[in-house]
UniProtKB/TrEMBL annotation:
One of its GO terms (molecular function) is GTP binding. Keywords: GTP-binding, Nucleotide-binding. It holds the Pfam family Erythro_esteras. Residues 24-37 form the SRP54-type proteins GTP-binding domain. Transmembrane segments: none annotated. This is Erythromycin esterase family protein. One of its GO terms (biological process) is SRP-dependent cotranslational protein targeting to membrane. It comes from the Bacteria.
Length: 394
């Protein structure tokens, strides 16, 4: 099997990868099979530098809290704060501890120091301020939106009304809610009223956009819109946390994916006149296929952000999956696709999925993950990927 597969694989370079992708793109999704393996964010950094220098890319979005991402963007944009502060306060999920993310911010800041303002690189978080088992209080997002509006237009409700509806943050952020939906406040009368109020505030933001942008700036309006989107998503997520039906977990995953897709849509629209965007996240968030994972004693499925985004962008969205062969004692079985690719001489290779489909004379077995965070290559889905970057050993 190795000989025919060899015809579908070439050594990895950023130039070879981009030559394989459709053009023109607005959004390039680069997925990683698991978190915490530095080889993949390091490869991301290498690719992003090439995209900036040769393909006109001006922004990157990571699987991290979209509101915290504003802190990282302020650092790379104009040097606000220090690098250590940007890593500590600008990333969620512990991703600020990754050496590759430190190098990414350092390089972006250095680039912005020597380029004209219109060539400035932007950093985005594309995730909501949540995890599957946790969601932030909507206070920060709603307060930012309210204060932005109140500085320029007459408001239908007072700030005191908003604070009363929000109440203390502790019930919103109680992680015990994941195991006991009855303790969630996501479907209380106050939470339902907050959802209506948020909708009203976002309506005001849209209706008064000409005045607000003229009084502040497009960037300030975009930031307010980001807080509005985030408040809407958080309230929807807390509502789903109170669900007691069997669909609860898949609903939570779908709400999170929709928040990601909404953020990506807003980023693409904002960056349309500047250049394409690279987004880096787990493969399950960026793939075109329906995502799935084991949960408790069952299996849950949902449409990820990449699947939703690809419907909107069509061939202006490309998905590149990354994967690996050996990781310590975790060695792929010879009859898995990862095992076959591991026999090739390239330390890092680019697989042409269409050519791979043509040369395979039998369907490989799907690799059995050594840990639950790893997403193995699905041999039946390679034709829905634009390229596969395979790292032989991590």
């Amino acid at each position: 099997m190795t000989a025919p597969i060899r015809d579908a694989v070439r050594p990895f370079t950023s130039a070879s990868l981009t030559a394989m992708l459709p053009s023109p793109l607005r959004l390039l999704g680069l997925g990683e099979p698991t978190h915490g393996v530095e080889a993949f964010p390091e490869l991301r950094n290498e690719l992003f530098r090439y995209l900036v220098e040769h393909e006109g890319y001006r922004s990157i979005a990571l699987e991290s809290d979209c509101l915290m991402g504003l802190v990282a963007d302020a650092y790379v944009g104009d040097g606000t704060g220090t690098l250590d502060e940007a890593l500590r306060r600008g990333f969620s999920h512990g991703h600020g501890a990754y050496a590759a993310n430190r190098e990414l911010l350092r390089w972006m800041r250095a680039h912005n120091e020597r380029c004209a303002p219109d060539g400035r690189l932007r950093f985005y978080g594309m995730d909501g301020p949540l995890e599957t088992a946790y969601a932030a209080s909507p206070r920060e997002a709603l307060s930012e939106l309210y204060d932005y509006l109140a500085a320029h237009i007459r408001m239908p409700r007072s700030r005191a009304d908003l604070d009363e509806l929000l109440g203390p943050d502790e019930p919103w952020t109680d992680t015990a809610v994941m195991m006991d939906p009855s303790t969630s406040i996501g479907r209380t009368p106050a939470a339902r009223e907050l959802r209506l109020l948020t909708d009203d505030l976002r309506g005001l933001l849209a209706a008064h956009a000409p005045l607000l942008i003229a009084s502040t700036s497009r960037d300030d309006w975009w930031r307010a819109d980001l807080h509005g989107r985030t408040a809407t998503g958080l309230l929807r997520y807390h509502d789903a946390m109170a669900d007691t039906s069997p669909a609860r977990i898949s609903t939570l995953l779908s709400v999170r994916a929709t928040m990601m897709a909404d953020n990506l849509d807003a980023i693409v629209r904002r960056e349309e006149r500047r250049g394409p965007t690279l987004v880096f996240a787990h493969n399950s968030h960026l793939q075109r296929d329906r995502s799935g994972m084991g949960w408790a004693d069952g299996h849950v499925e949902w449409w990820g952000a990449g699947a939703v985004t690809s419907v909107h962008l069509g061939d202006r969205y490309a998905f590149v999956t990354t994967n690996f062969g050996t990781r310590g004692s975790d060695v792929p079985a010879p009859d898995s696709l990862e095992g076959m690719l591991s026999e090739l001489p390239h330390e890092r290779g680019i697989v042409d999925p269409r050519r791979l489909t043509e040369v395979l004379d039998r369907k490989p077995e799907r690799r059995v993950p050594a840990d639950y965070t790893y997403a193995s290559l699905d041999p039946s889905a390679t034709d829905r990927m634009d390229a596969v970057v395979f790292v032989r050993e991590v």
